[in-house]
Specification:
With 456 residues, the chain is mostly beta strands. The strands form 4 sheets. The chain has a 20-stranded mixed beta sheet that branches. The chain is 0% helix and 51% strand.
Length: 456
């Protein structure tokens, strides 16, 4: 039977590892030895992948992953040097560990995506991805199913660097599958890209343009040259359980241009550019953006913004395009590091090119670290590097239940350009910085072109 419903065997296999990974030829990192088991069961070895992070000076980090359907125990052994301190982030997950010599042990009650860091080293850390169990898997291709089994895959028509996905197709990347190409969904509908396989060093990871009803779930993208997921002019895009790394300029995580009805859920993005970027017109897409939800995710911007929106639009439009109805909720931001003050902001809205950005909710956001940057940044601007006209307005923005603990960041910023290009109706509700609830915006950088700023 080609289609296997793993729920039927979940009672027998509550932790699934990927031994096929050993045969893919992807580089191994010997910094750690990692094992996993069901409670009291037999230890299983994981393959420690080498991944690259941080464009400032590219570093070698590690990544492991497995599937779990019940509580599991994890062992992480540091193979070089001693252990003086340990951080398992996001800190909000409250993962407790015990230490025995140069190894730590901890129990996970549920699937989650973690960074295990020894002695404060966030550049050579272990990324541990405990995935939920797959509910659908395939063992071969069939009508409507494009199958990639364990091993390395390249386009049949080399030197082509992409694989085109037609409408009404399920693409399954089996555990241990490694695709060295971009997956392209263009002018298609009813496409699903699922599995536990890896896209390795593609030009882009997955490109979804002028399409409808597309699902991306479970796959990992390792060090693309450009975006991990690019959406242009697409309606009905869902991205779930995606894990990704990047370490080059313009190697954003998920970038959306003129997309509507988008859900990004339970992703882990560590990027050397914006993790999440939401824009209006750019290149071949027009019409504005709306109804976008980003939730239950971990964002780590080694460079640039964890969350960025509004920078690109249609400067030739008489009235400008609208970016509206965006919700960003239950997010752990592990890092924001941007040297250039013009581009700083963990939660950033840069409104250019006649855009109107409105009805945006940031809720339940936990910011753990800002190396260089700002917590909040809302500005209507004209940036000649990227814009041909100033933005129109930012309005009806809410920040609710935001926490940050840190020191040394630049002040948050709210600025308009003039009376006709302003920021208005902004609400900060239960924002807690270093344990103190924010009472006003007196420490923000502001100007006279902001209106109705409320702090609750």
């Amino acid at each position: 039977m080609i289609l296997v419903l793993l729920k039927a065997i979940a009672m027998q296999a509550q932790v699934i590892t990927y031994p096929e990974s050993l045969r893919t030829g992807m580089p191994h990192n010997d910094s750690y030895t990692v094992r996993v088991r069901t409670l009291g069961g037999e230890w299983k070895d994981l393959y420690e992948y080498k991944v690259h992070v941080d464009m400032d000076k590219v570093q070698e980090a590690s990544m492991v992953q497995f599937d779990m359907g019940s509580p599991v125990e994890v062992m992480v052994k540091k193979n070089n040097g001693t252990i003086r301190e340990v951080d398992i982030r996001p800190l909000n997950n409250k993962v407790e560990y015990t230490q025995m010599r140069n190894a730590i042990f901890f129990t996970l009650e549920r699937p989650q995506y973690l960074s295990v860091e020894f002695n404060g080293d966030r550049l050579h850390n272990l990324h541990l991805f405990a995935n939920p169990l797959e509910t659908e898997t395939y063992t071969e291709a069939r009508k409507g199913v494009m199958y990639f089994g364990p091993g390395i895959h390249k386009p049949d028509d080399l030197p082509n660097n992409q694989i085109r996905i037609p409408s009404n197709t399920t693409v399954y990347l089996a555990p241990g599958a490694v695709i060295k190409a971009k997956l392209l969904v263009d002018k298609a509908e009813n496409v699903r890209i699922i599995g536990r396989g890896i896209l390795d060093h593609p030009i882009r990871g997955i490109e979804v343009t002028d399409s409808k009803n597309v699902l991306i779930e479970g796959v990992t993208v390792v060090n693309p040259d450009h975006y991990t997921v690019f959406g242009g002019g697409t309606t009905g895009l869902t991205v779930k359980n995606l894990k990704a790394f990047s370490c080059k300029g313009w190697s954003d995580g998920i970038d959306l241009m003129c997309c509507r009805n988008v859900v990004v859920d339970n992703v882990f993005l560590r990027n050397s550019d914006d993790c999440i970027a939401i824009y209006n017109h750019r290149w071949n897409w027009w019409g504005g953006s709306s109804d976008i939800t980003v939730q239950n995710s971990v964002l780590w911007a080694d460079i640039a913004h964890p969350i960025n929106m509004g920078g690109h639009g249609d400067p030739d439009s008489l009235t400008g395009e609208v970016l509206e109805n965006v919700t960003v909720r239950n997010i752990d931001i592990l890092e924001h590091d941007e040297d250039d003050p013009l581009y700083q902001g963990s939660m950033n809205i840069d409104c250019g090119d006649k855009n109107i950005v409105r009805n945006v909710l940031f809720e339940d956001i936990r910011v753990e670290s800002i190396q260089e940057g700002r917590l909040f940044c809302l500005k209507v601007l004209y940036n000649p590097k990227y814009n041909k006209a100033p933005g129109n307005s930012i309005e009806e923005i809410t920040f609710r239940n935001i926490t940050y603990d840190g020191v040394g960041e630049n002040p948050s910023l709210i600025k308009g350009i003039d009376e006709n290009h302003s920021v208005r109706n902004i609400t900060f509700e239960n924002v807690v910085i270093n344990g103190k609830r924010m009472k006003d915006v007196n420490e923000f950088i502001t100007n006279e072109f902001i209106k109705d700023i409320k702090v609750k």
